[in-house]
Amino acid sequence: MDNLLATTAEDGLAKLWVIPEGGITEHVKESDAELRGHTKKVMAAQWHRTAENTLATHGADGTVRIWDVENSANTMTYDGLPQIATAMKWNPKGDRLGVIIKGGNMYSYDPRT
């Protein structure tokens, strides 16, 4: 969905906002959906390149989560990162998710398994 915006925040939520055709014309106070699952600050979100309605987030709680945003459902959780993640990116084919943690180590996840 081209008009869907994901935001992250210190309250542990990722929020989804539907941007109307023609853009935003007034102050928006309420999100259209909340993704609940992280227990600490959500650091970043990354849309999947080809799988529609799929979003990855990582948080200060040491988890990486994959979401089905159409259903506001956490479909996968990877936990146990030894440090806070500093970056996250889907590879060009979209079959791997790379997460860099503080200190420079990278973790790679295959959400298909």
Total number of domains: 1
Largest beta-sheet details: 4 strands, antiparallel
Number of strands: 10
> According to CATH, what is the class?
Mainly Beta
> Which stretches of 5+ consecutive residues score pLDDT under 50?
none
- Portion of residues in beta strands equals over 45%
How does CATH name the architecture? Answer: Beta Barrel
- Rough shape? globular
Strand order of the largest sheet: 4-5-6-7
N/C terminus separation: 25 Å
Q: In words, what does this structure look like?
A:
- With 113 residues, the chain is an all-beta fold.
- It has a single domain (4-109), classed as Beta Barrel (Lipocalin), CATH 2.40.128.
- Helix content is 0%, strand content 47%.
- The chain has no helices and ten strands.
- The chain has strands spanning 4-8, 13-18, 33-36, 42-47, 54-59, 64-68, 73-78, 85-90, 97-101, 106-109.
- The strands form three sheets. It has a four-stranded antiparallel sheet, with no helix packed on it. A three-stranded antiparallel sheet has the order 1-2-3, with no helix packed on it. Strands 8-9-10 form a three-stranded antiparallel sheet, with no helix packed on it.
- The chain is globular and about 45 Å long.
- It starts with a strand and ends with a strand.
- The model has no long low-confidence stretch (mean pLDDT 94).
